[in-house]
Amino acid sequence: MTKLNFKKNEYTPLYITIIILFVMMSLINGHKFLSLNNLQAMAYQMPMIGLLAIGMMVSELSGGINLSLVANANFNGIFIYVVLSWLTKGDMSSANLSQVLIAISFSFLITMIIGFINGYLIAVLKIPALLETLGMMTLLKGLSLVITEGYTISGFPNSLTFLGNGDLFGVPMSLIIFILVCYIVHIILDRTVFGKQLYFTGANQTAAKYSNINIESIIIREYMLSAFFAFSCSLIMIGQMNSVKATYYDSYLLIAVLASFLGGVDPAGGFGKIMGTILASIILQIISTGLNLMRLDPFMVTAMWGAIIIFVLFGKELVKNLHRILNRRKRMA
Amino acid sequence: MKKQILEVLKKREMLLFLIIVAISLFVQSKSPSFLTYENISNVLKACSIVGIFSLGVLIVTISGGFDVSFVAIAQVSEYLVVWLLLRHIQGNIYIAFTLAILVGTLLGLFNGFLIDHYKMPAIIITISTQNLFYGIMYVITEGRLLYEVPQYLAPLSTNKIFSAVAANGAEYGISTVTVLWFALAIIVAIFLRYTISGRSIYLMGGNSLAAQRIGINITKSTLMVYGIGGAIAGIAAIAHISIIMTVIPNSIVGTEMDTIAAVILGGASITGGVGSVLGTILGVILFAIINNSLTLLQISSSWYNVFIGGIILASIIINALQLKQQSKRKVRVKVEA
After folding, report:
1. DSSP B152
2. Which of A129, A174, A138, A117 is nearest to A247 (CA)?
3. Were both Cys, which of A17, A264, A307, B215 would link to A276 (CB 3.0–4.6 Å)?
4. Distance of residue A295 Cα from the nearest chain B Cα, in angstroms
């Protein structure tokens, strides 16, 4: 019975890919890849891809997309800087805990407002999500550029950077935050009425409408949830880069779309689970770390990330064809 | 008569044109050097590359597709063509164009094949191929710059028509790159309006099922659309080399969203079936004018994105409100009838 379940589990191909990639990278790189340091480094970096990918996934559940995710995260970091330097009158590194908390809660508020505006324009005014978030992305990036004048701003207090680069008993804080956030969102998506209604809205909007679901409120809340990931990203980002800038992680935006797709999210809406997206993020991270250890060009990593989607498509078709041939044989016998 | 005027005013092209005129007049009143022949020809030259790109993006967008890989395609064909011309082929500018169009078309067809064969969302496929093309090129070339570029490519951007001489002795005028852009725009406009293939692209974007039912071969059309998109990216590649006369592997990567935004602002619908060449040209020119006037008014260029984002959001909100009113009116008519 368990065997049958394993066969039917939609994540089996992802698990197999992870194992193959892991073994392959360990064989190529030897102990360098398997060392505790390297595994720790991977656990330290993975949450960035993971959070962005899940934020993207949440927005794709209703058939939308959120291109403003990375710009939103950068804007948050810069907003935290603005509030902190205003509270401490320019000397950010001397901020005490309560000031940091005030800055974080302000930035949380502004993220929710951005998420609300995104959701409102998409749900109520029926603007295609791709367009609306493209405009929002440009606007937020512009505001970030105006505030920072294009410079990198550093000097954050240790209590804030700890969230990104600290560790607890050897486990990176970023990973702990990642797991915590994933767990909360897992509860929201899979255990609440809102989550069920969101999946239903994405799968069939007309049916959802006639089932007395308030689609507009669902989509607005969805984009606020998506923006929440931009918020958690910005907290980790400040620690990992020890600074903020308007253009950090720009190239990760499209990677997040790829990761969510690789994790089984249907861009037309209605399907996609957190687990799949997490697994896909792990795959991308293994590729990236493995290729880096082989001292290959970082651009080789982008090429591989692009290639893997096409490989997956080829592979899926191959498996489908094999199934068809096997089934035909069975029927013949 | 009044109704007709209102109809014209409601058109996107007219709206854009009025915005452009308003901005121009405002900037002109602050900085008199704006509406001079010299400045205008410079602005047009500066936005020619984006202008050429936008024509390919327009065709893909009208067909209901989406393409973010065109910049990567242009980058690859730039590198490949210059490398071939330097090492292997004695050429001239026509051979350069032919090669670039060939490379662009092939890469575009690859996109079209993946999108059509696997029935995958175009955005996913083109993001992957963008990474793939760009990554492979960077790995093979190791990011080296090509400083030597065949000299016969230069006249395309340095030649000018209607040239005049400025007070300091510099020659200025409409660059041939701009002429190329407008010529291509006219060809694309004729293609979209008067040929069966062109009309079928609109139908495909507007209602793919209906297009299929009346006998349009969706596979062929998809391949054609992405092939043309790639070919136009190839043309833009040669124009770009001619302007900067070096091949920098990452010089235009990251500008794809600007081009897409200009096309959308020009009235093309992201869901397909709607869009015009004139609107796209006006969209590109509006962005270029904003960029130029920031410089003339001595405002920090970091404001550029704020204005662009604001304009995109404002225009789509206005559009959405108009649509909402229209649909309300439609309902009312039904009730009365």
Report:
1. G
2. A138
3. A264
4. 12
Q: What is the pLDDT of residues B160-184, one digit of tens each?
A: 877 777 777 677 788 889 999 999 9
Query: Rounded distance, CA B222 to CA A94, Å?
Result: 59
Is B42 at the interface with chain A, CB within 8 A?
no
Q: Rounded distance, CA A148 to CA A129, Å? A: 28
Using a pLDDT cut of 90, give the percent of chain B over it: 32
Rounded to 5°, the CA angle A219-B267-B65 comes to: 65
Q: CA–CA separation, A228 vs A106, rounded Å?
A: 13
| pLDDT value at residue B6 | 67
Amino acid at A282: I
On the CB side of B124, CA atoms within 13 Å amount to 27
Residue A83 lies in a domain: yes
Which of B136, B302, B307 is the closest to A303 by Cβ? B136
Residue A4 lies in a domain: no
- Whole-angstrom distance, CA of residue A296 vs CA of residue A328: 45
Count: domains in chain A: 1
Classify B2-299 by CATH class: mainly alpha
pTM of the entire structure?
Answer: 0.84
Within a domain: residue A263? yes
Cα separation, B19 vs A268, whole angstroms: 35
B111 CA: distance to closest CA in chain A (Å): 11
Rounded to a whole number of angstroms, the distance between the first and last alpha carbons of chain B is: 26
Enclosing domain of residue A66:
43-318
H helix or E strand, kind and range, residue B249 = none
Whether B183 and B192 have beta carbons less than 8 Å apart is answered as no
Q: Could you report the predicted ipTM of this complex, rounded to two decimals?
A: 0.79
Tokens of B117: 């064969």
